[in-house]
């Protein structure tokens, strides 16, 4: 067994194969910024999705369903059998080919009766796998309790699990599955574009004062004095007289307008995967960074002492081998207003790994030298 002592704190080492990724958007000028359509960054107030859910049964599993400790599926099966005129107690059922699941879906306001939508099926019991299962017809309810769709079909888990004795091989998560186009819409979601005093509201998907101001300016260039920004996320647009009877046409015309959106300076860190994503607007103040550490590795092995001729008592003892490694303290200087490109070049120059970069960025933020929002996932 190996132990690692860093800064005086012993921790157990578990060697895992992991892929670390470092992504960065290098500094770009305003002329190189991405221009997008209005429809890609806004939604019309009143047009929205809704969530559906339902409780169902998955059958046809190869002994990987819920065990006897999961009473939900047993009671559901007993209730279903009673509908077919078969009365049986849930306590008498012993089934491993059935699993109780929660079925969820998102339904758009644009779908119509008879359209199909995808559903997600998740085990709520102790089923080992949903591989090869078939979802029985499951009504899907909205928050108001009404049924808007019914789901049924074969499950797709996008992986597999194979077990033999105490060994197993698994790819992907096998207790959550998809049923592509598995639900048929039975009732439409009411859709209404909210028009207040002849104006409709465009809601930004990412709230930002600069983007809201630019959006209003872009609309006013085509439809004179028709738009203004109410706040950082909403732009009110007056419907021209020629579009009073054609609101859809007006929305389509506005959605095709080009706009240069603005974004906040952010650094997003995922410590589990070692991924770092930095926006082009992130800046670093003048700061000196030294990164290094002390690694102490302790390896323990069992030593056995056996007297000659097998006479006497066998003695066992622990033998420890200690190795100390001190990482070089590389010092780098970042000048004021350093861009992401400068930071990447400096970090690459000292051979920093994604894990090192995460620690360095957190330290720079703590020192108040990172001008941007640090998001840790």
Characteristic key phrases:
alpha+beta; 5 helices; five-stranded antiparallel sheet; 3 domains; 377 residues; flat
Describe this structure in words.
There is one protein chain. The chain has 377 residues and is of the alpha+beta class. The protein has three domains: 2-26 and 266-299 and 325-376, no CATH class; 36-47 and 193-259; 50-185, no CATH class. Helix content is 16%, strand content 40%. It has helices at residues 71-83, 209-222, 247-255, 340-349, 354-366, and strands at residues 2-6, 9-12, 22-24, 36-37, 42-44, 49-59, 99-108, 116-123, 134-141, 147-154, 160-164, 167-171, 176-185, 195-196, 199-204, 227-229, 234-238, 258-259, 266-270, 275-278, 283-284, 287-291, 294-305, 315-326, 330-334, 370-371, 373-376. The strands form eight sheets. Strands 6-7-8-13-10-9 form a six-stranded antiparallel barrel. Strands 5, 14, 15, 16 and 17 form a five-stranded antiparallel beta sheet that branches. β7 and β8 form a beta hairpin. 20% of the residues are buried.
Q: How far do the termini sit from each other?
A: 31 Å
Low-confidence stretches: 1-32
Beta percentage is 35-45%
Instruction: Tell me the domain tally.
Output: 3
Give the averaged pLDDT, no decimals: 77
* Computed Rg: 31 Å
Read across the widest sheet, the strand sequence of neighbours is: 6-7-8-13-10-9
Structural class: alpha+beta
Task: Note the total helix count.
Answer: 5
**What is the approximate shape?**
flat
Report on the biggest sheet.
Answer: 6 strands, antiparallel, barrel
């Amino acid at each position: 067994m190996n132990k690692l002592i860093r800064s005086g704190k012993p921790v157990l080492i578990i060697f895992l194969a992991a892929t670390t990724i470092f992504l960065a958007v290098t500094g770009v000028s305003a002329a190189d910024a991405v221009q997008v359509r209005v429809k890609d960054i806004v939604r019309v107030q009143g047009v929205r999705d809704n969530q559906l859910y339902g409780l169902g049964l998955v059958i046809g599993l190869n002994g990987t369903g819920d065990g006897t400790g999961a009473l939900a599926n047993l009671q559901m099966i007993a209730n279903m059998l009673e509908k077919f005129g078969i009365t049986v107690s849930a306590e008498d059922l012993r089934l491993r080919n059935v699993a109780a699941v929660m079925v969820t879906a998102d339904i758009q306001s644009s779908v119509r009766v008879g359209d199909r939508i995808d559903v997600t099926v998740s085990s709520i019991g102790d089923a080992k796998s949903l591989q090869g299962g078939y979802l029985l017809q499951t009504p899907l309810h909205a928050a108001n309790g009404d049924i808007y769709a019914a789901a049924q079909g074969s499950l797709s888990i996008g992986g597999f699990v194979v077990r033999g004795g105490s060994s197993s091989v698994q790819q992907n998560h096998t207790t959550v599955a998809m049923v592509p186009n598995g639900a048929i819409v039975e009732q439409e979601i009411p859709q209404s574009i909210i028009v207040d005093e002849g104006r409709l509201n465009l809601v930004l998907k990412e709230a930002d004062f600069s983007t809201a101001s630019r959006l209003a300016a872009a609309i006013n260039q085509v439809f004179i004095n028709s738009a203004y920004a109410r706040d950082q996320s909403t732009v009110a647009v007056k419907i021209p007289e020629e579009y009073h009877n054609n609101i859809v046409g007006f929305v389509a015309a506005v959605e095709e307008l080009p706009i240069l959106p603005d974004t906040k300076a952010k650094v997003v860190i995922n410590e589990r995967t070692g991924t770092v994503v930095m926006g082009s607007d992130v800046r670093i103040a003048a700061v000196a960074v030294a990164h290094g550490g002390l690694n102490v590795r302790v390896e323990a092995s069992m030593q056995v002492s056996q007297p000659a001729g097998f006479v006497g008592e066998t003695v066992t003892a622990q033998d420890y081998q200690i190795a100390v490694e001190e990482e070089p303290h590389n010092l780098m200087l970042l000048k004021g207003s350093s861009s992401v490109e400068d930071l990447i070049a400096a970090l690459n120059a000292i051979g920093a790994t994604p894990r090192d970069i995460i620690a360095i960025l957190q330290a720079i933020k703590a020192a108040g030298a990172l001008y941007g929002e640090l998001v840790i996932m």
